[in-house]
From TrEMBL:
UniProt keyword terms in alphabetical order: 2Fe-2S, Iron, Iron-sulfur, Metal-binding, Oxidoreductase
Organism annotation: Erythrobacter ramosus
Name of one Pfam family that matches: Rieske
InterPro entries for this protein: Rieske_2Fe-2S, Rieske_2Fe-2S_sf, Ring_hydroxy_dOase_asu_C_dom, Rng_hydr_dOase-A
Record's protein name: Phenylpropionate dioxygenase-like ring-hydroxylating dioxygenase large terminal subunit
SUPFAM superfamilies (alphabetical): Bet v1-like, ISP domain
Length: 452
């Protein structure tokens, strides 16, 4: 069952009780350990994207805390997951985030495992006086399923099926066909904050007008409706091609609106005094261009052609989607330090249709990649190669050596300060507004997972 509420600068009362909570969950090693045993070990987790394991022999690895998992597509086309550790002496088998192999070979003593995790070869097997029972010494299996273009794993089997877990969001996300998208960017940043501070940040728009001024010129966050779903999931639906209604409506299109209009052959000068007409004009122009290129947009509403829908999948995934692209962000805990975490960001693009001059020249203003939310993508480039993962640090973002888009960089820069402040004696507990009820909903689900 979903609960929906529309936000404004005078929002309705939260549909759930705002309880607030102690800062201990962000700074306490005991909380980190409780999450390891009662959350990460029992929850359905997004291990990767399906396009990375489309072919036989392809594999990805997924690290969550101290655990590392291999997910591989076998020669029989079946997808399997297994612990990334040799059953001989515990050596981590694979260190690469993805690749293609016919076997997994331990670098220590050359034990060989098949893509299905079976133990196939042991050098000097006759020298083991206890024998080598291969049926017992295969890689330990992990529950794995594919859904919505994503790969899910669960370390400990439980009663909640993946289908039931995703049921509240399956239809809405499924429309976007992430399974038909390809990776165009893959980044991982080591962050100086607790993993939940990242989730909290992407569960509210209260901060957006103050931290992200560029959004005022292209989105309306002030009135974005939100939804709360079973199992801790949430959503927010942000209008695009508009300006923020919390501020005066400009007489002429903003620079971001002008960029969007020009991308579809529309003249910004025609919208002087008609800024409110830009969003429907963009929707009509985009649908018309899609029709000319033979693209199937019938499954999308007009709103979906200009707006950004964001879904937070409990416990740790933020999925921002449009018909042409998606951002998959995933927050993961540090192994030992509650004040550190890892943020992954994968950009997915659906290549289709014929390349148009507008699409070919789509700009990426200030590194924000805003164009991908409004343009049509052409066919997959002939020289397309899935980009490797780029791993870097929080300091690299601050120094400008790396970027994860202007907006995400601003969030990352601020969240380090959040963690610093939480460690202070001057701060005891999180104090939420009704507008931050998605944050409360997430923490309610977290408490339930931990038996609180």
């Amino acid at each position: 069952m979903a609960t929906t509420v529309s936000h404004t600068f005078a929002p309705d009362l939260s549909p759930i009780a705002i309880r607030n909570f102690s800062k201990e969950r962000y700074v306490s090693p005991e909380w980190l350990e409780r999450e390891r045993t009662d959350l990460w070990a029992t929850s359905w987790l997004v291990a990767g994207v399906a396009c990375d394991v489309r072919e036989a022999g392809q594999f990805i690895t997924f690290d969550i805390g101290a655990e590392s998992i291999i997910i591989a597509r076998g020669a029989d086309r079946l997808l399997r997951a297994m612990h990334n550790t040799c059953t001989h002496r515990g050596t981590k088998l694979v260190t690469e985030p993805m690749g293609s192999l016919r076997k997994f070979v331990c670098p220590y003593h050359a034990w060989v495992y098949g893509l299905d995790g079976s133990l196939e070869s042991v050098p000097g097997a006759a020298r083991f006086s206890n024998g080598v029972p291969r049926e017992k010494l295969g890689l330990r299996p992990v529950e794995v399923e594919e859904a919505l273009g994503l790969i899910f794993v669960r370390l400990t089997p439980g009663a909640l099926s993946l289908a039931d877990f995703l049921a509240p969001l399956h239809e809405a996300i499924g429309t976007y066909r992430l399974d038909l998208m390809d990776v165009t960017n893959d980044q991982t940043v080591s962050h100086l904050c607790n993993w939940k501070a990242i989730i909290d940040n992407f569960a509210e728009l209260y901060h957006v007008p103050f931290l992200h001024p560029i959004h005022r010129r292209m989105f309306d966050c002030a009135t974005a409706p939100i939804a709360l779903f079973d199992h801790g999931h949430t959503a927010v639906y942000v209008e695009g091609g508009v300006t923020d209604s919390g501020f005066p409506t400009p007489e002429v299109p903003s620079d971001m609106q002008a960029m969007q209009l020009e991308a579809f052959g529309l003249d910004p000068a025609d919208y002087r005094g008609l800024v409110g007409a830009i969003r429907p004009a963009l929707q009509r122009a985009k649908r018309a261009l899609a029709g000319e290129q033979g693209l199937a947009y019938d499954s999308f509403t007009d709103a979906q052609l200009t707006d950004v829908w964001q879904f937070n999948l409990f416990p740790n995934v933020i999925l921002s989607v449009t018909p042409e692209s998606a951002w998959l962000m995933r927050s993961r805990p540090d192994v030992t330090d509650p004040g550190r975490s890892i943020l992954d960001m994968i950009t997915l693009v659906r290549f289709h249709g014929e390349e148009s001059p507008e699409a070919a020249g789509s700009d990426e203003a200030d590194g924000a990649r805003i164009g991908t939310h409004f343009r049509l993508n052409g066919p997959r480039p002939a020289d397309y190669i899935r980009p490797p993962r780029d791993a870097f640090t929080h300091e690299d973002i601050i120094a400008g050596r790396k970027t994860m888009t202007v907006t995400i960089d601003e969030d990352i820069s601020l969240l380090g300060r959040v963690q610093q402040g939480m460690a202070s004696r001057g701060f005891d507990s999180v104090w939420l507004s009704d507008e931050e009820c998605r944050v409360q909903h997430f923490h309610d689900a977290l408490d339930a997972s931990l038996g609180a």
